[in-house]
Amino acid sequence: MTTLQIELPEEELAILDSRAHAQGYANGAAYLASVAHHLALEAREFLAEGNPNPEQLAREERLLLEALNDDRPAIEVTPQWWANFRAEMEAKFNGEV
């Protein structure tokens, strides 16, 4: 196991200890360890279900924001546009361009 050390102001530690005791934990450290454990389990389940990892989500969000802030004019993406795009990509892939 790995040890994690967290520094908190006294008043935050008192709130944490109070919540820990209310939920049946010996102290705030035990409570935080339990919270971290449950978060890790949820993350593993989320990733096991085929969901993207956090780095991939952050990258996709960054790319989306860049696209939204792009000054180029918008285009209408129609079935014909997709057909042309697909043909263009196939030509590039096959070395025809």
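Second entry:
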Amino acid sequence: MNILLTVIGAVLAALGVVLILQGFSVLSGGPIDGHMSWGVYGAMAVTLGAGVVLLARRWRCGGICSVMALSSWRRAPHGVQRASWSTRARSISFR
């Protein structure tokens, strides 16, 4: 699953680069040549593709384990009390 998401993210990012180059008239010869909106769409595609690649590389296991890794409300081990959000916020120090 991680390899598939990495490939999808890389292809999306590469497509975004092509859209940026065509949108800003660096790469000519296409029907979207010179339309600035396609450059913006390309930037969004690069950002989304890079995010998918980063998430895919960060996850260690596939399936539901990956979804649970993103959740901050996983079950605590038996007998351990989870700190509330306010307790966590007070323990963070900004320097």
